Amino acid sequence: MNAPSTPQFCLRLLRRQLVLAIRRPIEIGNPLLFFAMVVALFPLGLGPAPDKLADFAPGILWIIALLSNLLTSDSVFRSDYDDGSLEQLLLSPQPLYLSVLSYIGAHWLVTGLLLALVSPLFAVMLNLPAAGIAALFASLLLGTAVLSLVGGIGAALTVGLKRGGMLISLLILPLYMPVLIFGSAAVKAAVIGAPAAPYLAILGAMLSLAIALAPVAAAAGLRISVDA
């Protein structure tokens, strides 16, 4: 039997991670449940005034999306490290860069993409003006991909630690801040009638840079963690 080509191998790896996620629906449901709970709690803390909620909605939604992504970052490589699959992956002839990109892509599909898809519903709950919903969706599509890529670096560096969740937060939370700033700024600009495209372009540039560099850093982190 011939060995699969690199694209076939990466697609199979991506499909495997998605199937494993579907078999563990709690991993998919946790970020969405966290998103819904925090969105429901903010009106209790800020008051139900529609104008006040609308003013804070872009920042609120983006902060919750960031924390939801951070909640699941530790699990990107964890299960494969525990069962020894990750060591076999490091020994395979396939480029580790693309394998890591498959892991991170699967993580984004089951977290960031789903959060972006349900964000319009939560935006309506917080009385976000309709003009900002499209910008929110677009910024979350781009921004959560960056968050997953950066989170993959932290996950790779801490995968060998039994309790690496808090350490991941300390390592990557500062790198999340630019995404939060430009993501919420894009929504605010759309709400006031200003162009959101410049902020989305910056998020797109961040995503391009993250795709180029984050898998390289994550691959190096995996080699360090497994060898240790």
From TrEMBL:
One of its GO terms (biological process) is cytochrome c biosynthetic process. It is found in: Cell inner membrane. The chain crosses the membrane at residues 97-118, 130-159, 166-187, 199-222. GO terms for cellular component: plasma membrane. It holds the Pfam family CcmB. Its main location: membrane. It is a multi-pass membrane protein. It comes from the Bacteria. The keyword Endoplasmic reticulum does not apply. Keywords: Cell inner membrane, Cell membrane, Cytochrome c-type biogenesis, Membrane, Transmembrane, Transmembrane helix, Transport. The keyword Cell membrane applies. GO terms for molecular function: heme transmembrane transporter activity. Belongs to the CcmB/CycW/HelB family. Required for the export of heme to the periplasm for the biogenesis of c-type cytochromes. This is Heme exporter protein B.
